Amino acid sequence: MEQESFPSHVVVFPFPVQSHVNVMLNLAEIFSLSGFQVTFLIPDHIRKGPRFDQISSRFTRYPGFIFKTISDGLSVNHPRTGDRVKELFDSINATTRPLFRIILKSRSLICNGRAPLTCIVADGIMSFAIDIAKDFDLPTILFRPFSATCFWTLFCVPKLIQAGELPLKGVIFVTILFCIYGLSSSNYAWDSDMEKLVENVPGMEGVLRLRDLPSFCRVEDVSNPQLQHVVSETHRATNAYGLILNTFEDLEESALAHIRANIPKLYVIGPLHGYLRPLQGSKSLSEEDRKCIEWLDDQPLRSVVFVSFGNMTVLNIHQLMEFWHGLLNSGKPFLWVISGNLTTGKCHFPADGSVKKGKVVDWAPQEEILSHPATGGFLTHCGWNSTLESVCEGVPMICWPFYADQQVNSRLVEEVWRVGVDMKDICDRRMVEKMVRELMEVRREEFVKSAQEMARLARKSVSEGGASSVSLDSLVRDIKVMSHGKST
């Protein structure tokens, strides 16, 4: 076999928030295991964080892996939550974009004997990488760290606008009531319109309702800058060398077929964390409370509701307390992650004995908790990383989406995969209690059976000969061809 003149050298460029960095670190590790040199552009606020040294030590086993710092232009203490993402988009455009060009132009990534750059693998919400990399004769592969169904839905937004399904009417008024006062939108006539099925997302007929469209679609004016930005970024994937999605064929077959018709170079290689199970070491970018595992060890089989809304969700105090009382009233033990960014005020939980039914931590080892035999359900924001991790462990879900793709994902959980319930647009203690009981008691066996089947399919996809494993092999081969200068 002909020897490579030098190894493939891939630059991995994530969107600078924790969930995107986490999943692209998994991708970078898979590239390292494939023998590539990898330069990971780490956001400076994460490099300055308390966990970076431990994360960095995870990659010392790969001599071809290095971190290179890049700034998003925001202060270290900026929350980078979903309600303030416009600030992040604007700052990336003003600061990160020109810095990326400077880094490539400086040739600093290929000093000290490192191989020439082969390609850029950039987060799909930062498609400016395509144009900049092209100036240096580098191909760009985009990576979208959310569901294929959400990607396809955003791709279809121009059709939705043309057909009059967007914009939504009355959305601003009701969203304000919901977000500020914690009211359920089901109290308003507007809500009945949100139940209408969407007709112009091919493959999703009879599944998606207006309320299930990505949160960016909840606007009264289709010229809304955030909506226009995410739709434009989605369509720009057609200009990249290819597109990587962290999902698997059996999970989103319909959406993937439609995407593939528009983007032939589609690499469906998920769930990414499934390839890395044998490797030890924490992957969290936040400090974890390990004592919660000891607490779980003392709980009965499948009895605990794990509660986590990720690091971009923001609750007001009213919403927080509705969840709290709903969980207490359900009578089920719960483990709840309440990070510093989760709420806009201070938490004042009741100081009575009822708190013994649950445990609250600042952050937790989520994958380990979901795989723990005491975990019986997951109350989640339905971010894609969390959704995939729950699917892979066969844990049924209660979904309360907040932002971006989460509205789409929660609908898939309930209506398509039948592995949980969708509680979107409702924040009421009685409904929380009802949903917990439905998941853990009333329909428990039904959900567990469906969830275990999806977990089996997830494991199959990343095993040798599985569809995702085969697609990953294709991606690795294509990158190696690029390093030979033979890409087509």
UniProtKB/TrEMBL annotation:
InterPro entries: UDP_glucos_trans, UDP_glycos_trans_CS. The keyword Glycosyltransferase applies. The keyword Isomerase does not apply. Keywords: Glycosyltransferase, Transferase. Pfam families: UDPGT. It is an enzyme of class 2 (transferase). Its EC number is 2.4.1.-. SUPFAM superfamilies: UDP-Glycosyltransferase/glycogen phosphorylase. Belongs to the UDP-glycosyltransferase family. This is Glycosyltransferase. It comes from Rehmannia glutinosa.
